Amino acid sequence: MNDHAPLGPGCRDTPVLKERGQREVFCGLTGIIWLHRKMQDAFFLVVGSRTCAHLLQSAAGVMIFAEPRFATAILEEKDLAGLADAQDELDREVARLLARRPDIRQLFLVGSCPSEVIKLDLHRAAERLSIKHAPHVRVLNYSGSGIETTFTQGEDACLASMVPGLRDTDSRELLLVGALPDVVEDQMLGLLRDMGIDNIRCLPARRTDDTLACGPNTVFALTQPFLGDTHAALERRGARHLPAPFPFGEEGTTAWLRVIADEFGVDRATFDRATQAPRARARKAIAAATETLNGKSIFFFPDSQLEIPLARFLTRECGMTAIEIGTPFLHKALTGPDLDLIPAGPTISEGQDVDLQLDRARAARPDLTVCGLGLANPLEAEGLTTKWAIELVFTPVHFYEQAGDLAALFARPLRRRALLKHGASA
């Protein structure tokens, strides 16, 4: 961490440009796509429209011979008109689902825009169904609606719904929070265990884990910067947050691990033994992309809530200059440590008025623009090089072994643009 000393004041106290206007966001139901792969005995039942069903099928790319762990209970016209008892119909569909899929241990009733518009009480339904199907199945609910949220909040709402059901404990435990690909989670756990830290739990667990607990001696570290509601729910249970930069790149990963190591009394020599080799590999991998990224400017539209830690990684480790860092929601209790490390200069914006932000991007003409799918093609047509923000959520990018892949995701569109220009001029 000392190898990347701050270059003057950071951005924590930079005045924030707060915008409230037309937004370009993706639906919170998309969180199901990575959550259902992570939690292997859970099932996600969306209570929504045919549009919700089509979104999940197309976004997940489910093959016809696969049996996914999600589905949509489609609200028909009679449900929307109040001609049928939606609670009775939901009970019937859940009973049919559980009879067909006895492997389900945890069932999430996921609210959508249509179910929330008609005020369908899924919380009451989850309580009733959980009692009915106990002890084999636990039924929870959360909102995946995209009306007032961005798409990564689907995971946040899901994990927050699980916190009240965690057992009470007085044991000193480390809870690692956030859904990661299994291979990345294994790397994370391996690094911590190499330092002698055990009694570690992960939320979410790969399978329903009745040993997951929370109490006044629980400390937790977040692996994703969009878990504001989960953070609040854990603190209400008495757990204590370990604020740290998020584990993107060599610097972020080392800082994140160092905070945990300090909390558990790991000495510097042990820490260095556990991290020295992967740190060197990460630096070497990042350097390959830095040749393309160094000196280039970047502009972030608000999309995934990963923007602040990614801006820290790109400006500190890849030599880029951030013009604007837009994020849907700014939660300084979570991203403050990353803001501290970002060199002063960029505009920090929260929320969005997309027309005004497009004007700023066009005026700035950044070398690379990170934005949602709906903006990428129009901006490319105007000559701006873009990076799809959603790809950063679906690609393994955390911790040392993925640091080079993370840098390459940003270098690739710049290299493609250079090749296209070279071909056009040849």
Provide a short characterization of the protein structure:
The chain has 426 residues and is α/β, with parallel strands linked by helices. Helix content is 46%, strand content 17%.
Report on this structure.
A 6-stranded parallel β-sheet has the order 1-14-13-12-15-16, with helices on both faces. It is α/β, with parallel strands linked by helices and 426 residues long. The protein has 17 helices and 16 strands. Helix content is 46%, strand content 17%. Helix 7 runs parallel beside helix 9 and helix 10 packs antiparallel against helix 11 (268-293). Helix 13 links the parallel strand 13 and strand 14.
- Between the first and last Cα atoms, what is the distance in angstroms? 45 Å
CATH topology of the domain at 2-24 and 284-425, which one?
Rossmann fold
CATH class of the domain at 2-24 and 284-425: Alpha Beta
> What is the number of helices?
17
Gyration radius (Cα, Å) is 22 Å
State the fourth-level CATH superfamily of the domain at 2-24 and 284-425.
Nitrogenase molybdenum iron protein domain
Mean pLDDT: 90
The shape, in one word, is globular
Structural class: alpha/beta
Order of strands, widest sheet: 1-14-13-12-15-16
β-strand amount: 15-25%
What is the CATH architecture annotation of the domain at 2-24 and 284-425?
3-Layer(aba) Sandwich
Could you estimate the helical fraction of the residues in percent? Answer: 40-55%
Total strand count, please?
16
Major sheet size, sense and barrel closure: 6 strands, parallel
Low-confidence stretches: none
